[in-house]
Every structure is written in structure tokens, then in C-alpha cells.
Amino acid sequence: MSIKLTMRQLLYNMRKTDASDLHIKAGLPPIYRVGGHLKSPPGLPSLNAEDTERLLTEIIPPQLRKRFDEKGDLDFSCYQDVERPDAAHESDREPHKHDRFRCNIFRAGGAMHGAIRRVKPEIPTFESLHLPDVYRKIADELHEGLVLVVGVTGSGKSTTLACMLERVNQTRAENIITIEDPVEYLITPKQSVVSQREIGTDVPSYGEALKYMVRQDPDVVFIGEMRDHDTVLAAIQAAETGHLVFGSMHTADTMQAFSRIVEFFPQHEHAFIRSAMANSLKAVCAQRLLPANVDVAGVPVVPATEVLLSNATVREKIREAEDTDLPAVINASSADGMRSFTRSLAELVESEMVMLSTAMDYAPNREALSSRLKGVEVKASTLVSRVKG
User: Fold this and answer.
1) CATH fold of the domain at 7-119
2) Which of 43, 79, 194, 227 is the most exposed place for a label (fewest CB within 10 A)?
């Protein structure tokens, strides 16, 4: 029997529960991600293939349906009316009725599945995201070069980059061009001129967008995802010619970012691309989202961050393929604004935003974290018992 839920109901529940994501899969009930955890509201039965087809077809733009049918996978962003489904009268209607969503629709096991992320209308601030001051400094002080924000899926890269771009938009007169698949946060021009280009809607591919990008007189460029040889090369070339380029990559930390970039190029170009990276790279910011103590942090998740800033030593290590030395460089350069994950985790525990047990679960080196927390064991232990109790 088909379940007569509507996407409007499911998306309304996203707002109501402050869920970040909604997963629609055949054989399972609708599943929400709330505070970093997956959960299904009680009373929602499993969906069958007919249900998922009907629900997801409600939100696929008609002009993109053919592409989905041909490829079996589709990324897009959209606005949806998510007022309370039973709001029959004007007095029942809620403000901000049109919410923005980033959607990935795909076929698996012969059925349509969907992963839908709610994009809040306001671009968050550095403070609300609990990002360290060095992020603001990067946005304020850099006017050329390459800035990478890296992390695994769901680590908040897009939100962080939107925050940095919005800072530029608020404080400088620049021509900002973004290339995204899809566009997530909408940036309203303030001091800057802003053009946001969406793959599949405004331009057919990253390659096509990057081909003409320099002719559009940009000062600041944002490449939504650097995922192949051409996007990486275009980003580096733009950075080398005086543009400020922001980009994101799916890697766990700063070291992996360099090895991932090199992997996009044939062996005989490795020395060339390392030299180009050494010359153009200004910063790499890696982040992971951790479950937070909401009473202290005010939000369900907070970022642990690792920040690498360019200096003579960093450039030499990149050029000479000595990436494994970079963590030591970061540890020795905290006075310059660099940050290790270990330092970030320790600060989160000391501020009581994160439980010690949680920090240990996410620590790349538990011994190093334990050593750094010496002298605050009582405070950390109290936090664990207080939160658990």
C-alpha cells in the first residue's frame, strides 16, 4: 500500500525539528539528521519504491528530469513551500515559508532515493559557527592566492566557505564569482558584486564555467568542489594570476589535501604541480563536526579545526613532497595562527563545549590529546559525568 505522505509535510518537519538532512530510501521510513544523529520520527512507516518515486518527483525541476533519467543521479538546489501542511487560513501561515534545499536524487536497487539538505536563509557568522579567529583573518587579509577548506562529507565546508565569502562581500568592493553544483547559500550583494553560477542551470559543466571565468573580470572566485585535474589546474592558474580563489575538497585533513591534488596529475607533472601549489597556496582549513554540549555551545555540533598557513617552511615541504612533516610545522607555528586538530579538541574540552569522551573518539592522536589536557583532567572528568548524568 502506498504511503500518502507529501514532500511538503516532510520538509516542514525538517524545519520544525531543525533537522539538517532528510533521507528518503525505499524500504525505510523517512530519516532525519538532527544534531548530527540519524533518527526516524515515530509513526512513519517504511516507504516503497512507488512512494519514493512520487515524493522525489515533487521536487525535481521539470527541466532536469530528463538528465536524471539519463544519468540516474542529479544534484540541484530549490526553494520549497514548507508552511504547516494544515495552514488553511492566512492567520495560520508562518513567516519565511519558502526554504532552500540542496538535493541529491539517485537510483539504487531500481528505486529512487534522495538526500536533501536544508540550507538556512541566513549565512552564519564566524561566531555562531564557533570558528577560530584565523578564519576571519584569512577572509579579511588575503587578496590573492588559493584557500582550501577541506573535510569529509557533512563537515560544514559549504557553510564555512559561505561565511568567508560573505565576510568579503560585507567589507570589500570586489567582483565575486562562484561556480557551484548546486548553489547553496544565496549571497546578496553588499559592498561586492556577486554572480553565482550553477552547474546544469547556468552553465553545463565546471570545465565550461572555468574556461570563461577569467574573462568575467573576477577578483574573488569560489569553486564549489575541486574534484579533478581541470578544476585544480584552473584554480591554481587563477590564484597565480592575482585572484583570490576559495575551493573545497573532500579530504580528512591538510596532509591528505596535497596528496589528493597530486593524484589528479600524471607522474611526470608531479614536480610541476607541487611547485605551483607551493607558490599559490595561502591556507588550508580542515574541519570535522563534533556532537556538542548544547547547554554550553548553544548548537548541536561544533567544529574541530586544523589550519595550515603558507610560510617559507610550508612552501618548501610542499615543493619537496614532505607532506608528512606538515603536522610538526603546524604544531610549531601556533603563534602565527596555525592550529592542529589536537589543539582544537583540547580547547573544546577546556571550554566545556565537547565531552572528553567525544574528543577522544575524534582525536587523530589520543596520547597527544591526553598530554595536552594534563592539568585539566578534573574539569574534563566533571564535564563527562555532568553531561552523562
Assistant:
1) Beta-Lactamase (3.30.450)
2) 43
- Angle (nearest 5°) at CA 311 between 305 and 317: 85
Burial of 202 per CB tally in 10 Å (0-12, 13-18, 19+)? middle
Residues of the chain short of pLDDT 70, as ranges, are 1-3, 82-98, 375-389
Dihedral sign computed on CA atoms, order 267, 250, 184, 128: negative
Distance, in Å, from the CA atom of 175 to the CA atom of 120, rounded to the nearest integer, reads: 24
| Predicted local distance difference test score (pLDDT) of residue 345 | 98
Peptide bond just before 62 cis, omega within 30 deg: no
Q: What distance in Å separates the CA atoms of residue 253 and residue 118, rounded to the nearest whole number? A: 26
Q: What is the pTM of this model?
A: 0.85
pLDDT at 381: 41
Q: Within 10 Å of residue 240's Cβ, how many Cβ atoms? A: 15
Residue listed under C-alpha cell 595561502: 282
Q: Where are the domains of the chain?
A: 7-119, 126-339
b/e per residue, 340-361, with b = 16+ CB within 10 A? Answer: bbbbbbbbbbbebbbbbebbbe
Question: Are the C-beta atoms of 83 and 95 separated by less than 8 Å?
Answer: no
H runs (alpha helix) in the chain: 7-17, 49-57, 62-71, 126-129, 133-141, 157-171, 206-213, 229-240, 254-263, 270-280, 294-297, 312-319, 326-332, 341-350, 356-362, 366-372, 377-388
CA–CA separation, 339 and 235 (whole Å) = 25
The pLDDT value given to residue 78:
86
Would you give the DSSP letter of residue 88?
-
- CA pair distance 211, 116, nearest whole angstrom: 30
What long-range pairs does 203-210 form, CB within 8 A, spacing at least 24? 203/179, 206/179, 206/181, 206/230, 206/231, 207/231, 209/179, 210/179, 210/234
CA-closest candidate to residue 281, choices 309, 249, 241: 309
User: In terms of CATH, what superfamily is 126-339?
Assistant: P-loop containing nucleotide triphosphate hydrolases (3.40.50.300)
